[in-house]
Amino acid sequence: MEFGKEDEFDPLVEMGMVNSQLNQITLSINMLKVAVISAAQKPSFEPWHSELIIDFIHSLENYCEQLRETIGKERISAVAWLTRSLLELLTWIKFCRSSRENAWKFHEDALRDVKGLIEAYTKICGALGINNKNSARAMEEIQALAKEKLGLDEIKSNYLEVSKAVKATDSIWSESFTHINKTLSKFAHPTAALIHGIMPKVETRRDLQVCFAIQGVHFASHCVAELEAILGVVEAIPLAVGYQAKGGMPAWGSWPVARVETTNGGPQSNFFWAP
Fold first, then answer.
1. 95 closest CA partner among 226, 238, 232
2. What whole-number distance in Å separates Cα of residue 100 and Cα of residue 131?
3. Cβ–Cβ contacts within 10 Å for residue 104, how many?
4. Which end of the chain is more exposed for a tag (fewer CB within 10 A), N or C?
5. Sign of the torsion formed by the C-alpha atoms of 67, 68, 69 and 73
6. Where would I find the beta strands (DSSP E) of the chain?
């Protein structure tokens, strides 16, 4: 089969489409901001959960704005990095949407990440012989927050990696994530393939940048769809009788999950509330 000119890959045309799609995503993000304000008033959304959704929306907006700024510029590594970030953001949204326990785990990991950063800073100071007076106090503050906000007597820095979180999503997405993430990483970092193989080839570099941008828009669109599903609940589903909160999770009355169709045509059950 031979393709005519209208089917040929034109980077300028494709980037115009990327910009147009980003405009549509921006409109959707603004609608999400309104929706989350409304959802936060419902008893089915606890404050920590509303804040998590808001942070997801702001992160999505930020990545899309940065992706837009690369249009018309030689920014292949930046586009690969932003697209990979949108890929990971989509994975975390999927992970948190799949169950309340997963969402709480991600909520906790924000503090675990900070503790890991302080531990790394402490080691850097030790390696460079720098007098570090702040880490001990920071660790005390983190532990106090863990007790007050999370109900944990002790918090460690063993956060959940995205490569493991993706396994909690559907198998097709899990397998796709691994291959796409690996490919984008080759261009997001100064690898031999990028420095010595792709960078000297101007046309190839530009074409790949456009392809990555198209992927980024695709992942951003799916982020919007996942967040719309979370916020578009008509009625809350009551908590299963006998459920016991785990790991310091505060009890809640319901979990806002959109009803989706399964392969047999019936609504998906709220299986993750099984005691």
1. 226
2. 42
3. 23
4. N
5. positive
6. none
